[in-house]
Amino acid sequence: MAFGREQYGLARYFLTSLHSASAVNYRHQVLRDLQDADVRTAVEKYARSMDAMRQCLAQAGKLRYMYQRQRWFLDAVDIYCRATSAFAERCQQLEPRSAGLLSLRGYLDGYTRSGEFKQTVNEARDLMARLAEVRYCVHIRGSKVRVTRYAEEEDYGADVQKTFAKFKQGGVKDYRIQFRTLADMDHVEAQILELVAKLYPGIFRELSDFCQRHDRYVDETLRTFDREVQFYLAYLDYIRPMKSAGLKFCYPAVSAVSKHVDAEDAFDIALASKLASDGMAVVCNSFQLGGPERAIVVTGPNQGGKTTFARMFGQLHYLASLGLPVPGNSARLFLPDRIFTHFEKEENLQNLRGKLEDELIRIHDVLRDATGSSIVVMNESFASTTLEDASFLGSEILRRLTQEGLLCVYVTFIDELASLNEACVSMVAAIVPDNPAERTFKVVRKPADGLAYAAAIAEKYGLTAKRLKERIAA
């Protein structure tokens, strides 16, 4: 999501969940403001200027010669001052509704009116103007270079152009030498600049003094805003192609207390991003948990969308905890303290543990750390053991999870787990009624049909009716 914004270090924002509804609603309001074209344009223009400022500072840090570094620094300060003043003025013309941007507008107004900021602006502009007025002549004779003040000497370039103007014959090849555009100077240019500084010691002394006094010129509040607003913009940019493809996103109602959760026409955002870019359709699913219900037990055939549904459930709650719009028409979600996942992993030859042992150790860690305010997503756990053992382990774990009262999605081939207790809700990956081999990728709320595990085993060992007929015919 943060591709192209690596310089902002946004990982910390995407990895830090919120745990209060008020904090989530604060971000919702900011996002709604940023979806206004005028607000977003103003913010992005300021961000581009701040990026240009950072590029100047970065370039200054790479240069070898003091006066050149100082001039790049002065350019950075000038960009910052002009951009901040323009942004403050533009914000006064906008009408944001979020507490965040309203607070920023007030802060900007006070900051740009402050004596310290005004002094920085005036000093930077005065220095820029005075440096632009520095004129000098370079006299080159053999290997000797002499620098003098410009004394209104005649411009021979104009005379040369005038003399040869009569020979001009339309478009011809340009033989003029192009100067280098490299940022860094060579040693000859640096020595010339040193001589110019001796000719105009006052202005260059003021430049050095300015750089020392304003080494921390960027306001920390604005620096923080410039970085944090990219978190919002990055997500809005990420979901834009999906919205253009017709997929819906909503601002969920959230609670850190109520575990009555539901979502309408939701989808796996990672899968949808890929499918939408390829022009393919995305299947949406819904769910609801109310009363004593806490765990969704998902059964059904392979490749029917069970794992995608489990990921979707976790994604919805995680995105909601970041204060971001979630995929779906509507949603009411819980703010967990943590989200735990238990998906099948390949055996790790380094730890010398078998697959079942590794799974048991990982789920033990989950059960140890999870609380009643956590969410657990388990996907086809214990598939490496026997049906009897998988049923026993799954029953014990589900009882433990539901006793804690936490929310859970448990994807399994064991249909009996779907009716373990009143906290468990059965959902099944549906198939086309007339063609059981065709998946709809819809996961619907209904009792497990008792055939999912048998069908999976038959398919695994080539014992389906189709495969048996092929063998007999052969």
Protein topology:
Layout: H1 11-14, H2 21-34, H3 37-62, H4 66-93, H5 99-113, H6 115-132, E1 136-141, E2 144-149, H7 156-164, H8 187-199, H9 201-213, H10 220-244, E3 249-250, E4 253-255, E5 261-266, H11 269-277, E6 285-289, E7 295-299, H12 306-321, E8 326-327, E9 330-334, E10 339-343, H13 355-369, E11 375-379, H14 387-404, E12 407-411, E13 424-432, E14 435-445, H15 452-460, H16 465-473
Parallel strand pairs: 4-9, 7-12, 7-13, 10-11, 11-12
Antiparallel strand pairs: 1-2, 3-8, 5-6, 5-9, 13-14
Can you put this structure into words, describing what you see?
The protein has 474 residues and is of the alpha/beta class. It folds into 2 domains: 1-150 and 186-240, no CATH class; 245-473, P-loop containing nucleotide triphosphate hydrolases (Rossmann fold, 3-Layer(aba) Sandwich). It is 51% helix and 16% strand. A 6-stranded mixed β-sheet has the order 10-11-12-7-13-14, with helices on both faces. A 4-stranded mixed β-sheet has the order 4-9-5-6, with helices on one face. Helix 13 links the parallel strand 10 and strand 11 (375-379). Helix 3 (37-62) runs antiparallel to helix 4 and helix 10 packs across helix 11. The chain starts with 10 loop residues before the first helix and ends with a helix. The model has no long low-confidence stretch (mean pLDDT 90).
Specify the CATH class of the largest domain: Alpha Beta
Question: Which structural category do the helix and sheet elements fall into?
Answer: alpha/beta
Widest sheet: strand ordering: 10-11-12-7-13-14
How far apart are the termini?
Answer: 52 Å
In helices, the fraction of residues equals 40-55%
How confident overall, as mean pLDDT? 90
State the order of secondary-structure elements, H for helix, E for strand: HHHHHHEEHHHHEEEHEEHEEEHEHEEEHH
Number of strands: 14
Gross geometry: elongated
Percentage of β-strand residues:
15-25%
Name of the CATH architecture of the largest domain: 3-Layer(aba) Sandwich
Please tell me how large the radius of gyration is: 33 Å
Q: Which parts are unreliable, with pLDDT below 50 for 5 consecutive residues or more?
A: none
Number of helices: 16
CATH-defined superfamily of the largest domain: P-loop containing nucleotide triphosphate hydrolases
**Main beta sheet:** 6 strands, mixed
CATH fold assignment of the largest domain: Rossmann fold
Number of domains: 2
